[in-house]
Amino acid sequence: MHDTNKLRRAFGSFMTGVTVVTTTDKNNTPIGFTANSFTSVSMDPPLLLVCPGKHITFYNEFNTTMHFAVSILSEGQEAVSNNFASGPDNRFEKTHWHRDSFGSPIIDNACASFSCRVHKRIEAGDHMVLIGEILEFDHTHSAGLGYSSNGYFSLSKEQQADRLTRRNIIGITGAIIKYDSQVLVVNTNSGLTIPSVEQHGRHGARSSLQQHIEKLGINVTLGPVYSIYDDEARNQRYTFFLANASDESTAGIGQFIPINELDTNAFPDPAQSTMMSRFATEVRNKVFGLYIGDVETGDVHHTDHTTNNNPG
Ligand SMILES: Cc1cc2nc3c(=O)[nH]c(=O)nc-3n(C[C@H](O)[C@H](O)[C@H](O)COP(=O)(O)O)c2cc1C
Fold first, then answer.
1. Ligand 1 contact via 60 beta carbon (within 6 Å)
2. CA–CA separation, 17 vs 206, rounded Å?
3. For residue 29, with 0-12 CB atoms within 10 Å meaning exposed, 13-18 middle and 19 or more buried, which class applies?
């Protein structure tokens, strides 16, 4: 008898992209779910596979449909992924989409999409291996959203930040570390700050921060990049990640405080103060964006690439 949670964590260490797999039911109503079990299979004939679990609401529909589609999500589409992985109601009302030539839904702004005819279904334990023959596909140049058990990641945005940091700009990398509904803050003489460290050598923001966290001795898993901004006056580039602590220990570097009691005015750095108020709002709304800009203005990149100009 194997340990299911351990196996899930082991599978989760394989980094993937994220897709939304869709079809229609007998009333032509769109249905779909988030899947990272996507694999390209064959060039000739062109085949791909995904693995719908027997637990999903619309398993029967995927077990009987003749057509389905796979949309590979772009960076910034975390909320689309979360939408299609929770609460099966109204998923398509919360997302921009269109139909392919065969009627299957395609997610707008996906970085690639494939329209398939079912080639073969293989029952495999608690999942089905659904192999599709690609009849039509589309591809853009946007970067794909990444996923591992640590959460989502946006590799191209991180690499972009790291490239700029190497041009003699001082890189500061930090993390908004969450445990339950609390966040880790560091008390300084002038007020609160977020755990952070200066990047060194040729290490990127993520690996510098990972090393710093290991040195501190706190049990933290780094998630997606959350905010990248420049402070031109100080010739600095800041990269902040979201992170989860596996327990409440802080190794003496600060304290966990409830997010809904966070006084964002207690952060003397205005950019951090704005970032933390955005974070508090997004925790409430359960939708996270990626901020790219400078200390005063920039864009928050959300689902469907909507933006606003609030710094943070
Ligand atoms: C990143 C990610 C990848 C997922 N991959 C799969 C998958 O490959 N197969 C699967 O059956 N469920 C997968 N899921 C879980 C389903 O998306 C989730 O159970 C969804 O709610 C199922 O649809 P339902 O709510 O209509 O049952 C994944 C979820 C996430 C967040």
1. no
2. 19
3. exposed
Q: Give the residue carrying structure tokens 């500061």.
A: 172
Burial of 184 (0-12, 13-18, 19+ CB in 10 A): buried
Residue 266 DSSP one-character state: G
Q: What's the CATH fold of domain 154-305?
A: Nucleoside Triphosphate Pyrophosphohydrolase (3.90.79)
Does the CB atom of residue 229 touch ligand 1 within 6 A? no
| Answer CATH for 4-146 from 2.40.50.630, 2.30.110.10, 1.10.10.10, 3.90.1170.10 | 2.30.110.10
Q: Is the CB of 257 under 6 A from ligand 1?
A: no
Q: Specify the pTM.
A: 0.69
Domain positions in the chain: 4-146, 154-305
pLDDT by residue (tens digit) across 67-92?
999 999 999 898 899 999 988 789 99
